[in-house]
């Protein structure tokens, strides 16, 4: 009897052991060296971003030899955005965060509010912050403190097909510039000419994308008209998102669909294959065009601006670096973040990964090395970059925004834009209230 | 000959079972218990330690959550449509293959192939086929003089499109089950019926259908349960849109939990979902028992 019991116990222990084996390798090997820091990044080391990153890390380690040493763990994101975030979330639950993590721009508020990341202001006094783009500071600031530091930037413009424009009879003089951007009426007029001439939508505005792209690319229309999604403190959406200025901007967007200038069911890669004369898209499309669609002779035009304010606004935002509150190596972590966001590091990142720089000095440094389109976006970013709202309940606010854009694009079902804005503003407000409780 | 198992036998038995039992406990029983508990807390993904018991607050919020209500309707709509469509298709395919004739192998492979393909791959494939501009389906429709359809971009059609694609994907497996059932029916029954002058349809109606009943019940049960768990097709093909018309319960659980980071809220939806499925399963079991 006793032997059988022992056998049972042995089997159980064996199976537990097996299970433990599966989860093994997670045991903490904290190095006692105060200068060794661990960094998690959301890309793989084989991508252009990873290669540029490793160059930056190597530079840091060389400069600080014997003092600090940074080690990167590459945790690529999966298509839907999981992978990396899942690992961070799991680490929060098990107290296993590294010293430095990367996070997407709109996550700043949630991570800061929850005490996952620590403010950086005390360490950034000698980091020449005046040189840093406003948009980078905006997206990394929560509650008046800088919590996260973007190491690359992005921007959106209107790509246009030069040949198709010529064919439709649009002259160089009619084209907008950064100094003299096109108003919504100008934009509609040119769209009308192109739509008639080519008997199809003039522009793919990615209005059917149903994801973060909508918040990212459509908020500038609202800002340009003097409206907003939420207030500056990120505590109120009602009276902001359903304000008359916001509604006006949304009505403009709706008119583009209604008049057939853009479409909710675009042809796949319509611009890239020369079927649409225009495309609203981010800096990453330059890379795609130059790699895969070399035949398209394109240029990049600035954002259309509101007729009333004529203020140029463009979207920004990308991944950032932040120090976790759990780290015991604050000086080393901050030193690394400062190094990775320096003029030189930003240069390596921008040229290596075709992203926009985060500092004015870097823009000066590389503007002759990049393509014309890239230069337009860099400059537009400098002049008019606007980060997305900093709110703790960002995922819900952003989704309500996306759904509002989607709602108005179904113009027959949703003729009353004010009503759409009211409903979605209330949704945002509820999410915000719940998150701040 | 049967000997009542002694305590010793029992212990040995459980000993051998223990690895499976422990796995089951860790990956099923304990998580289900945790969801039950989290449903009554305000667990936020980024501050797990600060979670507090908030009683029924999550459920009070749910009642007023229009997306949640819509997700229940959408799920119900899918379940109600997928069963006749998918089972009809499966039965039809099984009838085609059941006859000995040339080319059967081709049909078998063609009908069964979608089952072994990943749902994500299938969803992306159909996304291309259904594209309103250059998709094959719309090109064919316009060729035969019909208007091109928006399929996934119309809030009215999106869910039906997903029903169709899901049925196309899943019917092959049920076809196999029906086929197995059909081939178990002895041939002499049909021969006798033929001598008595039964038409083909009458044979199907009075012999095949009744004798397939156990198979049908099993197929309906499994389809029903799996239909409730719909998430991949609407996620990949329509992101729950347009206008939430393809937002299902499981998708909403995922979204509130992992995108919105409201683990507590998400758990309360999961709890309602589990309860619903549990009740349906119970009801079905009862119905079947009464039937037999």
Automatic annotation (TrEMBL), chain A:
CDD domains membership: PBP2_TMBP_like
Alphabetic keyword roster: Cell membrane, Lipoprotein, Membrane, Palmitate, Signal, Transport
Signal peptide start-end: 1-20
Pfam families assigned: SBP_bac_1
Entries under Gene3D superfamilies matching the protein: Periplasmic binding protein-like II
Membership in a protein family: Belongs to the bacterial solute-binding protein 1 family.
Protein name per the record: Fructooligosaccharide transport system substrate-binding protein
Organism: Candidatus Enterococcus lowellii
Automatic annotation (TrEMBL), chain B:
Transmembrane segments: 12-40, 78-97, 109-129, 158-179, 211-232, 262-283
Domain ABC transmembrane type-1 residue range list: 72-284
Topology with respect to the bilayer: Multi-pass membrane protein
PROSITE patterns on file: ABC_TM1
Location in or out of the cell: Cell membrane
InterPro entries found in the cross-reference section: ABC_transporter_permease, MetI-like, MetI-like_sf
Main location: membrane
Taxonomy, superkingdom: Bacteria
Keywords assigned: Cell membrane, Membrane, Transmembrane, Transmembrane helix, Transport
Family: Belongs to the binding-protein-dependent transport system permease family.
Name of the protein: Fructooligosaccharide transport system permease
Organism: Candidatus Enterococcus lowellii
